[in-house]
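Lab channel / #folding
Pinned by the channel admin:
"Please post every new chain as: sequence first, then the structure tokens as a reply. Keep commentary short and put observations after the output so the thread stays searchable."

First post following the new format, from NK:
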Amino acid sequence: MNEYILSLINTLFESHSMTLEQYRALIDARCVATAALLAEKAAAVRKSIYGNNVYVRGLIEVSNICKNDCLYCGIRRSNRNCDRYRLSKEQIMECAAEGYRLGFRTFVLQGGEDTYYTDDVLCDIVTDIKSQYPDCAVTLSMGERSRESYASLRMAGADRYLLRHETADKVHYESLHPVEMSFDNRMRCLHDLRELGYQVGCGVMVGSPNQTAETLAEDLKFIEEFKPDMCGIGPFVPHKDTPFRDHPAGTVELTCYLLSIIRLIHPPVLLPATTALGTIHPEGREMGIQSGANVVMPNLSPVSVRKKYELYDNKICTGEESAQCKDCLSARMESVGYRIVTDRGDIKK
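Reply from TO:
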């Protein structure tokens, strides 16, 4: 590792900010030694704020019906091989009850942009979860909605909202999405969510088609400036029924490298070690935690629908009961010196 790259890492560690050109240089300098140093510093920073705690979120995949046709996604509307489903309010509440019994204190409701989930329907679900489990946080990941919709859901009790920006480069964004989707609208959503008082999550697919070191540098600069409360960094994994079926998957190495950099950019950020990481490498989630991540999200969805929520091929943990998912992840975290904690796990600013 040369002196310049070492100076960049020290600059990031101390000031949490770099120029686009410096981010690009750090991305280009990725090697075993650079990755190890970044991971060491990221783990130290994370430990100074969160100790060895890893927060657990109960993921409820409410619907794989989606009005959008994103080129990378297995539940895109034009995929006629997708076996569609939608959970009822009663099923969602059963998942929450099971999760609460297992110790979960955050529920993440995630789904495609299913028009069934109007503000009235979704607000009713959020209100009931919050009234039955007032010590829990509700996170929504239901795509792009109007500012008025986000405001209604916030009033109903939603605490957090996850909306991956996918890429901070407009041209790159347009290469991944159909013409009716807008980069500017995605950014509008993120800023609306911030202004409405949500804990906000953005995020990137690592290794997505047409991604370059330049576009990744733009992502890092966006994350630096936006300062999300949560940031979902997971590898792109192709799906057989999409236009990108033959594109290679992102790598665990680059994903973990970026996790370390993001921890140094915004030390208190909540960073998940994603299911996609565990899909492309048998120890991917452990590697993510060792690189600076501090969140895992076991699945609370009914086992009968888990295989159907297939954003990408070969998704793991589709046949396990909720308790198995949690116990498996707990053992995995303990194997690398961390422990799952089951409080709300809010960001520590």
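NK: Residues 303 and 320 are 7 Å apart (CA to CA).
TO: also worth noting, The chain has a mean pLDDT of 96.
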